[in-house]
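Pipeline run #58 for the internal structure catalog. This entry was flagged by the ingest filter as a single-chain record with no existing model, so it goes straight to prediction. Upstream metadata was stripped on purpose; only the residue string is passed forward. Reviewer on rotation: M.T. Logging verbosity set to normal.
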Amino acid sequence: MRACASCSAAMDEPAAAVAAMAGELTGSELRDRLRIRSDQVGSGYSRLTESAAEALQLAARTEGIALDPVYTARAMAGLLAAVKDGTITPGQTTVFWHTGGLPGLFGHAEAVNRFDAALQRFPA
């Protein structure tokens, strides 16, 4: 498990919370297998980070998956960063846990515009 010690978090121990939720679903202890990144959080919930916007567009364009700009787009940005920096390697089993949040997309005009622009690339 990796965490950014100098980054602020919305909760004191996010790894413990995620491990508990995942453990309930899988019936196994996953804490030592989790990778928690805080480098994609940005400066606040109301501000769409460039990496989250890029992840939102990529997921929409390549997979048809809608991400919200507050949580899942930032989580996808973290996944993409982990692939780019070699933390996640080709062939390695990886799970992206999409927790929903689609209504959050509509509170961010910039995110909606980027999502729409990504979908415009699909033929009708």
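catalog note: Confidence is low (pLDDT under 50) at residues 1-7.
catalog note: DSSP finds five helices and no strands in the chain.
status: ready for reviewer M.T.
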